[in-house]
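sorry for the late reply, my laptop died twice this morning and i had to redo everyting from scratch. anyway the thing you sent over, i finally got around to it. pasting the sequence first so we're on the same page, its 266 residues, then the predicted structure underneath. double check i copied it right bc i was rushing
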Amino acid sequence: MASRGWAEIDTNFPTMQQRVADELGRRIVAGVWQPGNPLPVEDALASEIGVSRGVLREAVKSLVAKGMLRVRPRTGTRVLPPDDWNHLDPDVLRWKQAGDAAALLRDTGELRRIVEPEAARLAAERAGPDDVRALNDALDAMEAAAASPARGGYIEADIAFHRALLDAGGNRLLGSLGRAVEIALQHSFDISTQTPGAVEASLPGHRAVVRAVEAADPDAAAAAVLGIIEAAQQEIARSPGKPGPESEPEPGESRKRGERPGGHPA
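ok and here's the structure:
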């Protein structure tokens, strides 16, 4: 498979190291370099991307930390299988969204079914006044956004609601998990809310969650959240924005043809 070349680098990052790490990560997720295979030799890869070897090394280090690469003295830098990747890393989630959006939607839905109903039970058992207030504030923001013509801010408020629910159980690992998968949730909500009527239909379920938490009713809270998740899966299946079996652009195709890293014309 041909290499993308320097024109493919996304310039929406503050440092060149981050831009190069983004490019390498996208290539790995897209299968340009298969697990077990080595990356091209350092000089050749740095020259092809158009950066110094030092920048390339720093980018490689960041992907090593994400479990995507392994560096060994005599065998070079090799791609690790997806089972070794940190799939809760925001960058890995973003690359998966670009490379296999359908699989990310499936994984997100399954994770939510496993985690959120039990998190709702904990919230109903443990939530304090501040937790209930956070849920109500997020629900108010969802209702206000749903009532506006452009519905601006609805997805952000929906994410805040589910993050508040995970926090309300008092389990810090659950709270951290919610923040880690925020990109995946936003991707899921972006798709599901494109289904006509989905926004309005989601509000009663969220209200039911708040009522159950306020009433300290774990079973009702879990059932309400499960209903939200199942409805979202149905909305995703009907959504005009549902991703198909599309692949990444061919490596030779440029996002910004004729530009070097940093947006300068070639």
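The radius of gyration is 21 Å.
thats about all i looked at so far, will dig more tmrw
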